[in-house]
Design a protein that fits this description.
CATH class of the largest domain: Alpha Beta
Structural class: alpha/beta
Helix content: 25-40%
Strand content: 15-25%
CATH architecture of the largest domain: Alpha-Beta Barrel
CATH superfamily of the largest domain: Glycosidases
Mean pLDDT: 89
Low-confidence stretches: 1-28, 469-474
Shape: globular
Length: 499
């Protein structure tokens, strides 16, 4: 009983003295609030061993057993991290020796290794219960040579074509999408799956390897069927990319493939300026207008960020924390590849597609949870203006502002502790800076504000009115203490009477 009373007292005192962040918003369905977790189905989690076929845990070129049921099983795990959307690799029937979903043999059937249509419906239903959106990959560029469709000679471009929109990738027959019969088949297939399960959108693969004319008609038909259905354009970085071509095609988001290598190389080393990255990102945002950029550090087509940092002799978790701080606080939609939360390592394909290990590191897990919480509750991080206040050889200070809310993102990507001074023309003297990612409170001095960050660290500061002692709390504390003493005295007296 005494312990219980003590906990009540401590809780009252603690919460009554906390500064309130009155400008925080609740989560909404706004796409800018999206935080996507990317999953390669076969490599995530085996929820139903009975559908395993030709699996070999020792060979990453073979199936590992992951399936739709496995993703459903781990939805609470993803929700706890704060993700509100998942993007899953192609689940259509594939060649037996294919596990990544790109070698499709039947566009209107789920690969039995991944589960059934009922499994897909259950995944979507359970995800929506947890307010998690589900996006599935849709391949419109090619099919497997073993598909029945491959026998339709006039459905495919010549095998020796060198055009980026007509060439065969990895030996897979490339659809002739100028053929109306082919284009109609893919549009109707996309609608077919929308009727089968109530998922939230398509992650459209290799968009830049498909004629723009096809996407004009495809996107129009899909949006006509469901105006709220989300369409993301995933690009193949092995081909020439002109993002301006996709600006007015009704894509809701486009993968920022131009910045992946630059992000990875910059944050995997110390003392690297963010100037070029930030300029490129701002230019792309202006170029695309209302179409959002999907920003990421790595995926199933690249080396993992951890591998790049390790090759440079760096400590990967520290490097990854800085990169994620930037990813979750910059404009666009942040996407993280499965395993990022455990700093999973991996080089080229298939080493970057190892099976998921759910033995998380508590410190690193908490860090990601804080980032997702900040992006979800601070509108300036998802909707705000983007202004660079300071950037020099790895020490960067960014200002995000939206409505009446201002946050400062500080990233020290250097080998030394660093101090940045802000004058009162940047932050008013009547305010203070409250560290949200890690505990810190910066109050004004005579000349302004001095933000001090340790090497290889970051923080997100909320600009808020200066706090002062709450008179009500000061009066309440003695009253609570006296009441607590009386409570203990009565409890002891009652105990003596019982004896």
């Amino acid at each position: 009983m005494r312990r219980f009373g003590f906990l009540i007292l401590v809780s009252v005192l603690f919460f009554s003295t906390l500064p309130s962040i009155s400008f925080a918003e609740n989560n909404t369905t706004d796409l800018k609030k999206e935080m996507i977790y990317r999953i390669l189905v076969d490599r995530f989690f085996n929820g139903n061993p009975q559908n395993d076929k030709n699996t070999d845990p020792k060979d990453l070129n073979k199936s590992q057993g992951g399936d739709l049921a496995g993703i459903t099983t781990k939805l609470d795990y993803l929700k706890d991290f704060g993700y509100n959307a998942i993007s899953i690799s192609t689940i259509f029937e594939n060649d037996e020796n294919s596990y990544d979903g790109f070698s499709v043999t039947n566009f209107r059937k789920i690969d039995s290794r991944f589960g059934t249509t009922e499994d897909l419906k259950k995944l979507v239903k359970e995800a929506h219960k947890r307010k998690i959106k589900v996006y599935i990959d849709f391949v419109a560029n090619n099919t497997s040579p073993n598909s029945a469709l491959a026998k339709k000679a006039n459905w495919f471009n010549p095998e020796n074509s060198t055009s980026s929109e007509e060439k065969w990738i990895n030996g897979l027959p490339d659809f002739n999408l100028e053929n109306k019969e082919v284009a109609n088949y893919l549009v109707e297939t996309a609608k077919y799956w929308m009727n089968q399960a109530d998922f939230d959108g398509y992650n459209l693969q290799e968009v830049n390897n498909v004629p723009v004319s096809f996407w004009e008609s495809f996107n129009k038909e899909i949006k006509k069927k469901n105006p709220n259905f989300i369409l993301f354009a995933d690009l193949n970085n092995s081909s020439e990319i002109d993002l301006g071509k996709y600006k007015n095609l009704d894509f809701d988001g486009i993968y920022n493939v131009d910045s992946v290598d630059e992000l990875a190389n910059t944050f995997s080393s110390q003392n690297q300026s963010l100037t070029d990255i930030m300029k490129r990102q701002m230019d792309l945002n202006k170029q695309l207008g209302s179409t959002l950029m999907i920003n990421y550090l790595d995926d199933e087509m690249t080396k993992r960020f951890v591998s790049i940092a390790e090759a440079k002799g760096q400590y990967p978790p520290s490097r990854l924390k800085l990169a994620l701080a930037y990813l979750f606080t910059s404009p666009g939609i942040p996407l993280t590849y499965y395993g990022t939360e455990i700093a999973l390592n991996g080089g080229n394909i298939p080493d970057n597609r190892k099976g998921m290990d759910f033995r998380t590191d508590e410190d690193f897990s908490n860090y990601i949870e804080k980032l997702t919480e900040l992006r979800r509750t601070l509108p300036s991080l998802s909707h705000g203006d983007f202004e660079v206040l300071y950037d020099s050889k790895g020490m960067t200070l960014i200002k995000r502002h939206y409505n009446h809310e201002t946050t400062l993102v500080a990233i020290n990507n250097t080998s030394l502790d660093h101090k940045v001074h802000l004058d009162f023309n940047e932050v008013k003297k009547s305010n203070e800076l409250r560290g949200m990612l890690s505990d810190d409170l910066v109050r004004p001095n005579k000349k302004g504000f001095d933000i001090v960050l340790k090497r290889e660290s970051s923080n997100v500061y909320a600009v808020a009115p200066k706090t002062s002692l709450n008179i009500g709390v000061i009066i309440a504390i003695p009253s609570i203490f006296v009441a607590f003493i009386i409570f203990l005295w009565l409890a002891r007296r009652r105990s003596n009477k019982v004896k």
